[in-house]
Amino acid sequence: MTLRKLHVAVLMGGWANEREVSLMSGEGVAQSLEQGGHRVTRIDMDRDVAARISEAAPDVVFNALHGVPGEDGTVQGMLDLMGVPYTHSGLATSVVAIDKQLTKQVLGSQGIPFPGGRIVSTEEIHRQDPLPRPYVLKPVNEGSSVGVAIVTDEANYGNPIDPAAAGPWQQFDRLLAEPFIRGRELTTAVIDAPEGARALMVTELVPKSGFYDFAAKYTDGMTEHVCPAHIPEPIAALCRDYALKAHVLLGCEGTSRTDFRWDDELGEDGLFVLETNTQPGMTPLSLVPEQARHAGIEYGELVEMIIAAALRKHEAKQARAQESKAARDG
Question: Could you report the per-residue pLDDT of 30-75, keeping only the tens digit for each?
Fold first, then answer.
């Protein structure tokens, strides 16, 4: 694939919990594009972002933001109104996919397995456990394992949970409570190409200690990436199938990554989807570039593939708008 030379605005940073990760993703993308001969404008997300994008007048925006407001539909809606092409998923997909409960409702209704659970208030969890221990508490609309707590039988946060104990209940009013799935952490990337979306492979994530939390994801040496994962082919095939279905059903574009827990004592019945990430990291430790490299796609090519998908999306949208206008005028 050869991409014409472009002026790309790389949107990164912002004020979300994942700011530092976004800055690393954005810088990696920017350097890769410059090495490929493209012109790059780096934009650290702030409240004047629309004016800064208008002033830069790029051919396309590479959205390297993570979390709110770059991954929840806010930035996507702004760019749609501005008529600027941008990478990754659009407004509607972003609104649904950032919300773990909405994602569960959409994909679960199509036969994709998720853990049970429900939304709980922080007041409730300080009175009594919402589920039998062990269980997981996580924010409804954050990524990268931000604010995840595993509440165990050993009363690691108190019993009931102590409001003074450090945990997501100190930052969020509502949390998603899910049963803890013992076993192994797996993930599968999907990328868009002209011939259609393609699931890559399965990576197993093995933290050196604890579980695969934010620090384990982004601290070099804290997690072993086994890529491809040493798992039975039927499980790998299921991961690829579920990841591709999630990508298509949610309407993801460019790339996505679906995360799983697999209880290997239960075989295929032990595989559960946790979430689908519409804007996976592009840092040196990130999983999508790693899987792409194992599939023969180097980092620079991956970046250009994501941009090419964005341009195809924009051109298709413009064509539909012209057809609609012609139909109205005719």
Answer: 999 999 999 999 999 999 999 999 999 999 999 999 988 999 999 9
Query: Secondary structure of 270-307 in the HEC alphabet?
Result: HEEEEEEECCCCCCCCCHHHHHHHHCCCCHHHHHHHHH
| Strand pairing category for 184-193 and 223-226 | unpaired
Beta strands 184-193 and 149-151, pairing class? unpaired
CB neighbour list of residue 145: distance below 8 Å, 6 or more residues apart: 138, 212, 213, 214, 216, 217
Catalytic residue among 157, 218, 242, 299: 218
> Would you give the distance in Å from CA 5 to the centre of its chain?
28
Domains and CATH numbers, the chain: 7-86 (3.40.50.20), 103-114+184-294 (3.30.470.20), 118-179 (3.30.1490)
The one catalytic residue among 142, 192, 275, 304: 275
Distance CA 225, CA 251 (A): 28
Helix (H, G, I), strand (E, B) or coil at 223: strand
* Contact predicate 212/205, CB 8 Å: yes
Is position 298 annotated as part of the catalytic site? no
How does DSSP assign 146-178, residue by residue?
Answer: TT-EEE-TT-TTTTTT-TTSSSGGGT-SEEEEE
**Count of alpha carbons within 13 Å of 152, Cβ hemisphere only?**
5
Q: Convert the pLDDT of each residue in 130-139 to its tens digit.
A: 999 999 999 9
DSSP reduced 3-state for 128: coil
Q: Is 323 annotated as catalytic?
A: no
